[in-house]
């Protein structure tokens, strides 16, 4: 194989990593800051994809679909936090697992009622529908490059919010010592509702962006859920930087695993997780407990 | 104290006569045809184990709706008896298959068992049902073993075997002038069997397999494999993907610009019922299948209209398989006039059935697998149009079957 082959694979790996990061960053926020194990995170990804599909059909434009879909996703997140999750902060993780598992079933059922069981596709918006020739017979879809660019922007934006703003300070403080933050007079209830809604919106946004390259189908959320948990565990729970590095590692390992060790492809990501946990049980950027 | 009570029947009488009567009733319901049971005719119980949630939800729904449509056309009666459905969502989860099948067979005591979609669920189901279990009709699951090693007199299939999804593909690709082929498929039982059957006809006829690329099931991230495919530069690629995976594969393949240099082929599920989701990306993709929406025969026209009227949805190959499952059960029950006890006679009627199916003529092999024509189709303007018949009366070798 020539060098160009590996360069294209590298591009594939990075691109996959960015998409993973978008889903996993929301998950790590919720787990690290609020201590919530959110099994329904994949469902929010699915909801995003279906919103993109439904609203694009309605308005004729993916951009309008995303613009209208994001507030809906935020609202869904807010309602779920207020009317379900908020009752369980003081409970054991097992209750959260039960509740969020129930949410998966409810959202799957709602999806079938609202959109049926067909597999759907969303057209790539015209200006981004083209491809760039890479090798003599393969080209690269512009939309995939666009996704990567958006993910970089979001990663940058998140890091700015968390490092430089007052909200970020509260989030970081809440992650390291919840009681102290509360004692200092910060309204933790509001903070948590906000963080949860943002986490949900991130997952939904990932689903919306991915809708044109992925297909939109029942049960699609479960496929991203497990690998997102792997990313979060590798990176260290609660660490955005960790989620980013974790997502990139998984992107690289699974892409090159497929090419170099095809028989092992499906377990590569999990093998990597096991190795990293042996070396650092708290994950790459997690704090030791 | 008198032995007689107010009704004039002695206690001894009551006990003896009562037990005789009860025993008689019990015997009647066990031995006699169910139609003699007290209170009119007993209903025929049809157990359905199909997925209504998850990736295969659409398939399960269409199979069930089409089977019920066939029953409704026949007046909702099987051999003169009313029908009772026991309908369970299999979720296409192999881990639940045994428990759910057990529920239908032992708790519900169904007369017929219809399902499933997923091959691995099918294996668990057939292992429990074969032999003494209810008459079983498989309306989709394609694992070769179901009418191979696991075949049984009471197990029928109205869909296909994986062999029939691969074997006719070899000559079809060669006849189109492609000699160097890459095989890509989901790496589980069904995908592997399709690939093996393809090689069985393709290699002896002079074709070359450049490489086999099995991809993890049910993952839909194909980008790395497509880059590899581009570097291998074959004439054509023969694939097995279905549902969401098929939509993504066809779109990614087109987006990678590979349509210009590599011809895309596959088992029919690659483009079946997915036209709206795949759009232009699917144009020109060729697949083999025992059905095409555009088949021009009276049974197909009639069926497509009836299905549309009944459900509002477009019929597809899965609906056809469900419809034929309904027809097969109707034939069996008509032959024995509703007497489910006449098992041998019913099985004889079912295995010799010749059905005028929407797919064309449908017969059954000794192993109870379909014998039918396989069509080569091409997507033109969003429709799977028949290019030619790829194989007439395609049978299955039924490896390891003791019926055959």
TrEMBL record, chain A:
GO molecular function: transmembrane transporter activity
GO biological process, one term: amino acid transport
Membrane-spanning parts: 13-32, 62-81, 93-110, 142-162, 191-213, 225-252, 259-279
Pfam families registered for this protein in UniProt: BPD_transp_2
Domain of life (superkingdom): Bacteria
Organism: Geothermobacter hydrogeniphilus
Keywords: Amino-acid transport, Cell membrane, Membrane, Transmembrane, Transmembrane helix, Transport
Family statement drawn from the similarity comment of this UniProt entry: Belongs to the binding-protein-dependent transport system permease family. LivHM subfamily.
Main localization (coarse): membrane
The protein, known as: Branched-chain amino acid ABC transporter permease
TrEMBL record, chain B:
Taxonomic classification: Bacteria, Pseudomonadati, Thermodesulfobacteriota, Desulfuromonadia, Desulfuromonadales
Family according to the record: Belongs to the leucine-binding protein family.
InterPro entries noted in UniProt: BCAA_transport, Leu-bd, Peripla_BP_I, TAT_signal
Iron-sulfur among keywords: yes
Protein name from the UniProt record: ABC transporter permease
PANTHER family associated with the record: LEUCINE-SPECIFIC-BINDING PROTEIN, PERIPLASMIC BINDING PROTEIN OF ABC TRANSPORTER FOR NATURAL AMINO ACIDS
Top-level lineage group: Bacteria
Originating species: Geothermobacter hydrogeniphilus
Any one GO molecular function term: iron-sulfur cluster binding
Domain Leucine-binding protein: 44-382
Any coiled-coil regions, as ranges: none
Keywords (A to Z) from UniProt: Iron, Iron-sulfur, Metal-binding, Signal
One Pfam family here: Peripla_BP_6
Keyword Lipid biosynthesis part of the UniProt annotation: no
